[in-house]
Amino acid sequence: MPAPILGEQYASLDRQAVTLRFGMWLFLASELLLFSGLFVLYAAYRSMYRHDFVEAVHSNTMAYGTANTYVLLTSSFTVALAVFNIRRGALRAAMWLVLASAALGVTFLAIKAVEYGVHIREGALPGPYYHFADAATLGGNRFYTLYWVTTGAHALHVTGGIGVLLWTAWHVPRGRYTAGYHPRFENATLYWHFVDVMWLFIWPIYYLV
Amino acid sequence: MSAPAYREQSSIPLEAVPPTEPSYLDGGGLMGWLNTRDHKRIGIMFYGAVLAMFVLGGSFALLLRLELLTPDRTIMDANTYNRLFTWHGIVMVWLFLIPSIPNIFGNFVLPIQIGARDLAFPRLNLASFYVYLAGSAIVLGGLVLGGTDTGWTFYTPYSETTPDRLFPVVFGIFVVGVSSIFTGINFIASVHMLRAKGVHWRRMPLFVWSIYATSIILVLATPVLGLSVLLVGLDHVFHLGLFNPASGGDPVLFQHLFWFYSHPAVYIMILPAMGVISEIVPTFAHRRPASYNAIAFSALGIALVGFLTWGHHMFVAGMSTIDSGIFGILSMFVAIFSAIKTFTWVATLYRGDISFNTPLLYFFGFLFLFMFGGMTGVAVATQSLDVHWHDTYFVVAHFHFIMVGGSVTAFLAAAHYWYPKMFGRLYSERVGLLCATAVFIGFVLTFLPQFLLGNAGMPRRYYSYPPEYQWLHVLATGGAWLLGFSVLLAVGNLIVSLRYGRRATANPWDSRSYEWLTPSPPPPHNFPETPVFDRGPYDYELSQEEVYARAYPR
After folding, report:
1. Bridge-partner residues for B503, per DSSP?
2. Which residue segments constitute the domains of chain A, with CATH numbers given?
């Protein structure tokens, strides 16, 4: 098994691991601001079209959204288990758990695709293509336009996250990670958690309240 | 004739620094450069790319000024004019100013200044360069093939309905933003994790503080900008009307999102400039900064308050007077922090042992121009005055005093100051001093008349104007061409000196900052051996011999 590579700029592997994790948190802070821009848009338009938004939320496909919440939360659980396993050296288990999380991510996207299909059939489309009978208001149009943009951005992140998980899983049997040193593995799972947490904000504002 | 007031390179011989390795410039061939992980080489590659953008954006400006020589058509039609001022803004802001000092000098100097062998994530650093190149190519391609006439601010609703193409340009800006985020993450992580033993927080050179503050803005504000311009691009392509009142959208909301980034972005452009100045003043006054803390913490203050001032761009866009008042007062806080810095620099000069080399002369230009820009900034942060000046040449003059008078002057100062370290040669001091003077005169001639124009009511971005404004426009055009030529001459001086300049020693300016402890140009891993950092970077009470003896004990 190849030894982990220590960058020449680091004093120790520990230092390198801490720095890699710190860098990931900085990146997540940046990502958080990206999503918060979308949440600000939602808040602004909701305050402008209060009644229309409430009506539009009730017209949304809650069953799909809630099912997807379960799927993503489960994937967060499996990816956390993966970290637990790699820390105690169970590399195979860690790999399968990461793959399971990626599979749940694909499930999420599949459900989302079916849900988008429902929206398309009902005419709950963004902007000028909007002709949804259940929320035929200007505010409803705004709601679904933002819905497409926000869930679309999130789905892109899920897709990216799946890529990262697959890439991580692919490296496990190639000896890239050890029980003692696996910061990139943990970073991948951190990113996956972030994608899940963003959904936990999207779900209530677009399906529940 | 008396001796010149500037100083020739100091007498400390190269042998005081252990010369063990070849320099970072040697070897590797073309692939060694394109595939490098060395922060110094990446900095140099950024140097080339960013300078090209500077020349491009500057040529646009010169053409615009030519057009404005006469009230009617001079060399181009109105549509071309609209596109050209858009291109000038986009290239200068996103492809030149934002990456300029951080990505060139930050990349090169910051790791050396904290005693590190490289940045925390060298591959991410190289990725940042290529992402920047790709983003720039997309932006430029979009500009040339698609037109784009919205102004660099992409204000809605016009930007959603313009007949010109928009999406490639905003997508390119998004990509360039990703490069900025990569660089910001790298700098923050390096400052936290890679400082050498002995370089604790209060011993970091002030340039590091300013780049650190800048990086916070890069990481937190850039994603919002990327998002908002992308949304405008989507609006333009799919007519979603997210910000278009015709479909229930709110155009002012776009301005909020846009300025939430783009105002802090102003500090991305000026904070590194302040960092450069904070290095130059102690070096050429040979004196400890009047207050290290004042300079370091005011940088953080500007970075944080800078996030809370964006509303001052919208005083006349339908914001309540109370909101405007709050944003106005918060904006003035920035002036307080800037004034703290300015006074500290001036106080540092007091009783200093001053040598008038080119970087210091640029500093004097900077001081005057930055004060002028800053004070008019306080003026336009006042609601009642802003109503009169909003969207006039007064505002144009104000931000050019900061962006060109401040940032570009500091950029040129940095280019001269770190030149011996980067290339191991000395530029011609006489030509440098001449250029610094010419840049200053050209600048004042260009932009001082624009204050008068704006106050007299000349709106920004107009193609034609009443004939009574013409003499001021002629002055500004003359000044702009002088400015353009003197910048070219300054850059030419540096390029010629690459080959013909005299060899530089490790510390030609007799500075105490850490980057001068290593040979010029530095070896691939920055120091021949990691120096002992048992002192601050501004300990001018120590002699140079003492400094080297303590850094490399035998």
Report:
1. B425
2. 34-208 (1.20.120.80)
